[in-house]
Design brief:
By secondary structure, the chain is mainly α. The protein has one domain: 3-Layer(aba) Sandwich (Rossmann fold). 58% of the residues lie in helices and 10% in strands. It is globular. The chain starts with a helix and ends with a helix.
Length: 165
C-alpha cells in the first residue's frame, strides 16, 4: 500500500501497449461489492481465495497484462510460488522506505479503509512496519526489485523497462 503499484502499473502498461488491471478493482467488479464490504460480509479467507483464483485466471488467459495486486496478495497460499514459477509472468516489487510510505499514506488515509481509523503518524508507521515485517519474505522473492522512494512514476517505469529489456 502506497508504493505506487496502480500508478506505475498503469503507466507501464500504457508504455508497453499492454492491458492494465488493478486486481482489487477487478474483484470489486466481479463481486459487485467493495473490498471492505467483502471483508466484512464474507471474511478475509473468502476474499483471499477469490483473489488467488482471479489472479491465476488472469495470468492463465495469456493476454499481455500488467496486474497491480494488493499488498497482501503474494502472501496468501501458493500465490507467490505460482507467480514466480509462471512461464510468462514477471514479478516486480516496488520497494519503498517506511518513511516515504508513512508520509504518502498519512496524507491519503481517509481514502484507504484499512488505515482510515488510524489517527496519528506514529501509529500508522507502526502499522506499516508490522505489515512490511510480515510480508517482506514474499516481496523479496520478486524477480525485479525496484527502489522507488522519491522517484516519479515515469522514472520508476523507465527503471522497470530498462531491467526488462
Amino acid at each position: 500500500m502506497g508504493s505506487g503499484k496502480s500508478s506505475v502499473g498503469f503507466e507501464l502498461a500504457t508504455k508497453l501497449g499492454y492491458k492494465f488491471i488493478d486486481l482489487d478493482n477487478h474483484i470489486e467488479l466481479l463481486e459487485g461489492s467493495s473490498i471492505s464490504e467483502l471483508f466484512k460480509g464474507k471474511g478475509e479467507i473468502y476474499f483471499r481465495k477469490k483473489e488467488n483464483h482471479t489472479l491465476k485466471s488472469l495470468i492463465d488467459s495469456e493476454e499481455k497484462i500488467i496486474i497491480s495486486t494488493g499488498g497482501g496478495t503474494p502472501c496468501y497460499g501458493d500465490t507467490m510460488e505460482y507467480l514466480t514459477n509462471g512461464e510468462h509472468c514477471i514479478t516486480i516489487f516496488l520497494k519503498t522506505s517506511l518513511e516515504v510510505l508513512s508520509d504518502r499514506l498519512f496524507s491519503e488515509k481517509e481514502s484507504r479503509p484499512l488505515i482510515a481509523h488510524i489517527e496519528d503518524k506514529i501509529t500508522l508507521t507502526d502499522f506499516i512496519r508490522k505489515h512490511l515485517f510480515e510480508r517482506l519474505f514474499y516481496y523479496n522473492q520478486a524477480e525485479l526489485i525496484i527502489e522507488t522512494n522519491e522517484a516519479s512514476v515515469e522514472s520508476v517505469v523507465e527503471k522497470i523497462v530498462a531491467k526488462l529489456f
